[in-house]
């Protein structure tokens, strides 16, 4: 179904022959992001945990010789390392744009597989110009619990989801602080409230309550509308001097007004917490075996 955003993607004159890597391309926002950026003529490497599901979802998009599908399970460092190695073996230019789109919400408590540490050389971006992190307004549920990142003994699906989305924003901000002067722009964003496969763990009664909430109804978006901010973050020339910003509704977000409700636009006070973002970066690097490396 066409929306007011559709026409903007008919002739975007975007990244052209750039090379773009997009995670989470087996459903929802990932598919729409691929569809929009494919029109620019860019070469796309798209990833999915289940390649068979992705092939079915992407359909004839994969007929293009400029779109390449890679297997990537972000719950496994071994899979991350394998995907990075495969990408490096198939790509012949630098990575221009990385879009970290993959995600899921309100999951049961669990831990990633860490038996195999990632290879630092494979994980280092080869001078991309932008990295885009898809977060969510739900980060306003919780800041990061620096003294208990795993929420051991106090796990709650929504607290964990909010914390993870705050962590995504802080990661984008820290990437900008560390690498902005080297030509790498980083952005985080809220795509909007969208019905996708990421809600597979959300109880039916909760999803029904969203449908009954008037403030939620006003903010709900189609997949095309939801992907618009991601695409804008990836290619908009207007953002060239604004790295490290949190975006929503295809604009740089201002402070959140509580009167607009939990789904309203804007950022919470801790979104730009530089001290804790730096701490989280250091802890994260140690967790994945990259401590001490730039």
TrEMBL record:
Residues 112-128 have a biased composition (Low complexity). InterPro entries: NAD(P)-bd_dom_sf, SDR_fam. GO terms for molecular function: oxidoreductase activity. PANTHER family: NAD(P)-BINDING ROSSMANN-FOLD SUPERFAMILY PROTEIN, RETINOL DEHYDROGENASE. Residues 108-128 are annotated as: Disordered. This is Uncharacterized protein. The keyword Protease does not apply. It holds the Pfam family adh_short. Belongs to the short-chain dehydrogenases/reductases (SDR) family. It comes from Penicillium canariense.
């Amino acid at each position: 179904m066409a929306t007011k955003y559709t026409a903007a993607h008919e002739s975007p004159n975007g990244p052209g022959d750039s090379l773009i890597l997009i995670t989470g391309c087996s459903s929802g926002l990932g598919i729409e992001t691929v569809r929009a950026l494919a029109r620019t003529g860019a070469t796309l490497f798209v990833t999915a945990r289940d390649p068979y599901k992705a092939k079915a979802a992407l359909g004839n998009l994969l007929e293009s010789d400029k779109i390449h599908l890679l297997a990537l399970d972000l719950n496994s460092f071994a899979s991350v390392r394998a995907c990075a190695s495969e990408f490096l073996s198939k790509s012949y230019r630098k990575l221009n744009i990385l879009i970290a789109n993959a995600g899921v919400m309100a999951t049961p408590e669990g831990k990633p597989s860490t038996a195999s540490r990632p290879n630092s050389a494979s994980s280092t971006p080869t001078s991309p110009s932008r990295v885009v992190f898809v977060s969510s307004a739900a980060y306003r549920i919780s800041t990061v619990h620096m003294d208990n990142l795993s929420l051991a003994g106090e796990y709650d699906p929504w607290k964990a989801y909010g914390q993870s989305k705050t962590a995504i924003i802080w990661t984008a901000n820290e990437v900008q602080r560390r690498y902005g002067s080297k030509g790498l722009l980083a952005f985080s964003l809220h795509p909007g409230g969208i019905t996708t496969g990421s809600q597979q763990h959300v109880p039916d009664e909760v999803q029904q309550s969203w449908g009954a909430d008037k403030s939620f109804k006003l903010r709900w978006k189609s997949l095309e509308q939801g992907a618009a901010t991601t695409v804008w973050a990836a290619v908009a020339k207007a953002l060239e001097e604004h790295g490290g910003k949190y975006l929503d509704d295809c604009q740089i977000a201002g402070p959140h007004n509580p009167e607009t409700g939990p789904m309203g636009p804007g950022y919470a006070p801790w979104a730009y917490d530089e001290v804790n973002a730096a701490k989280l970066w250091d802890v994260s690097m140690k967790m994945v075996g990259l401590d001490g490396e730039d």
